[in-house]
Amino acid sequence: MTIKEIENAIEEEFSMFDDWMDKYNYLIELGRDCPIIEEKDKNDNNLIKGCQSKVWVSAKMQDDVMDIKADSDAVITKGIITLLLRVFNHQKPEDVENADLHFIDNIGLTSHLSPTRSNGLLAMIKQIKLYAMAFNIQNNNR
Asked: Which residue among the candidates 51, 55, 66, 104 is catalytic per the annotation?
């Protein structure tokens, strides 16, 4: 699936909920399916700066697409990173770098997060896009 198709699917899923408490519960549920980072990768290099909770994200290239894993010590944050991984994981770095992530606003996530969680969300996106940029540079130097 393309990033756009995944974003549309997420928007459709969240449209089933009228209440934001239900959406938070769904985020928590999504976090249970997070592609978990290996313990050895839970280090300062993979720790996202700017998050209230601890979030680790690692990425590598596998068969020309990004293989991203993550974890968090907070359940809602783990749900948020799982959403991002659903969009970005197994995508080409150039697609990740160019993604506009319209779904975040369309599902109302930014307007329902605390300022510290919003900063954390932006920091997670920034880190994943930095990985994509680095992979693109690597690919272009071959």
From this structure: 51
Determine the Cα–Cα distance for residues 119 and 110; give it in Å rounded to an integer. Answer: 10
- The answer to whether the CB of 17 falls within 8 A of the CB of 25 is no
Structure-token match 């290239």, residue found: 61
* 51 carries an active-site annotation: yes
SS3 104: helix
Specify burial of residue 133 (Cβ count, 10 A radius: 0-12, 13-18, 19+): middle
Provide block-wise average pLDDT over 10 residues at a time, the chain (142 residues).
96 94 93 89 91 91 94 92 96 95 92 86 94 88 65
Alpha-carbon distance of 57 to 26, in angstroms, equals 21
> From residue 99, how far is each of 3, 45, 103 by CA, in Å?
7, 24, 11
Convert the pLDDT of each residue in 122-142 to its tens digit.
999 999 999 999 998 887 766
Got the DSSP string for 31-97?
A: HTT--BPPGGG-STTTBPTT-SS-EEEEEEEETTEEEEEEEESSHHHHHHHHHHHHHHTTS-HHHHH
pTM above 0.85, yes or no: yes
